[in-house]
Amino acid sequence: MPSSPESPPEEDQIFDALASQAIETPSWGYGNSGTRFKTFAAPGAARTIWEKIDDAAEVHRLTGIAPSIALHIPWDKVSDYSELAQYAQDKGIELGAINPNVFQKDEYRLGSIASPDPNVRAQATDHLLECVEIMKATGSRDLSLWFADGTNYAGQDSFRRRKRAVREALQTVYNSLPSDGRMLLEYKFFEPAFYYTDLFDWGIALNHCQALGPQAEVLVDLGHHAQSTNIEAIVAMLLDEGKLGGFHFNARRYADDDLIVGSTNPYELFCIYTELVSAELDADAAVAATADNVAYMIDQSHNIEPKLEAMVQSVLNCQTALAKALLVDRDALKSAQEDGDVLLAHRILNRAFEADVEPIIAQFRSKFDLPSDPISELRNGQYLKDVIAERGTAEAGGGYPTD
Ligand code: AFD
Ligand code: MN
Ligand code: MN
Asked: How far does the centroid of ligand 1 lie from the alpha carbon of residue 262, in Å?
């Protein structure tokens, strides 16, 4: 986006930061989805990757800051990825991160790359290598790796055997990455395994990434932590280590609920963004470069909410959190911290959180010719009417292709 015309420098900086914000939306957030109890069919839900791209393009048209769509393979598999990339570009967005799927085939019952069966480990590694080839075909920078691998009972398997198997598979995939590509390693403390998960926290993910090399970084999914984990502290540590690759944004109350990011704990989202903004402004060039290269992706499934409205709301919640984080008086905060003035420092941070950023976001939208109210534009616009008429209500829970 062009830099904003005629505004004072500090406001200009805020507009430029808001204009450079990019939140990738997930293809799987547009199709029918559900819990293990039920998938409710949503009228107009996207049925194909082509329709998911249409929806993602509409979210970007409404918000101006959702310029790419993450793919999930094989759910979004096509015969010609350059055709798909061109289709996306014609709609005004790009293809983004590639998300492999090594959790839905029967063979993966005891794990994929950590399975005790060497044939299964090889099969899973081959799928990951296939996804690297897709990454090259789509021109994607990121391969987002999440593994359901783990165990359900003490004694079921060897922790250290599994760790070494994971490392071996990741190293094979790492060695095949394009020179400008990255693998983003996503940890999760439980589910679907209930006793142990092979990539269970940021420590083991960081450990693998540091062993693999500079093209391996950690992906933080907000829903993947135990209750009351201090996620902003993890974000700060990974930024400082130059190993924060990206986020899967969502919100949770209890587990990996994949609710609308910022809906249950907007303060946490704000604190995460304050770490990101301060890292971008850090004098340490390596930290600033890491912050500049963070991939912001939404990973949610909208099971009862209207899908596009939920996605637009998610993107707007990230925009609000960034706008507030940009208002933190960093100099005052730093001196209050250095003085050990506990509550002044706390108040300075909270002053930004409590600020009303709607006016500056409204100004941002008008400067860049974006709808002043994206949600009502979506609700009252023609797009939803058209897709509901055209798509009808796809059969729910039709399952996803696994080949
Ligand atoms: C599930 C997993 C993980 C993964 C996502 C997409 O918990 O977050 O990134 O599916 O595969 O939510
Ligand atoms: Mn995720
Ligand atoms: Mn998840």
From this structure: 18
